[in-house]
Amino acid sequence: MRQRITEIFKNYDPDLLRARQPAEFRSMRRPVDGDLNIYRPDEDYHASELPLKPAAVLIPLVDHRDGMTVLLTKRAQHLKTHSGQVSFPGGRCEPEDADAMTTALRETEEEVGIDRSHMKVLGAMEDYETVTGYVITPVVAILQPEFILNVDEGEVEEAFELPLDYILDESNHELQSRVWDEKKRYFYVLMNEKHNVWGATAAMLVRFARLINGSLR
Q1: String of DSSP letters for 169-189
Q2: CATH class of the domain defined by 2-169
Q3: Is residue 113 within 8 Å of 148, Cβ to Cβ?
Q4: Could you state, in order of their start, the residue ranges of all structural domains in the chain?
């Protein structure tokens, strides 16, 4: 599986061109993928004005001998936004970050204590725009499992891993809806025994799975 994913990203993001996009470029470019075409397909959806707020996350594929997993975090309960939600390591781009890859690796080090020497970046997925006006670059990397977690309890309640096979199984990608502000909104959910992955994180995992499965449109 490691070789297969590596080869896919050699073609999908040659020379890490997406991963190396600077924040200024991404903030002025509206992505094709995002909440617009998943959460709020209604005609009353108003996209955020440019510039968008650039951010990056890491999709960390842990290369265990018995199968790859994806490392995820659960945000601390006291945070003002998205508290208790499952997410990737990541965050908003800082002025000193050269590109999306730098942001994703830096945030992963800060949130869960994994040094970038354990990571091999393969490339990045297409940017994802959220309803809150962020443009998120999902950077994909393979992690060697010898790392030691050092979770920043100020941001992260826990870090955990889900089997990659579970994520790649598209029967686990459930599109749900909920009435919010008198409108029906849609969102992806990946449910398991302990954690429910939903929102932008689930949407990016769905897109990643489709890329690996060859079903991405």
Answers
A1: -GGG-EEEEEEETTEEEEEEE
A2: alpha beta
A3: yes
A4: 2-169
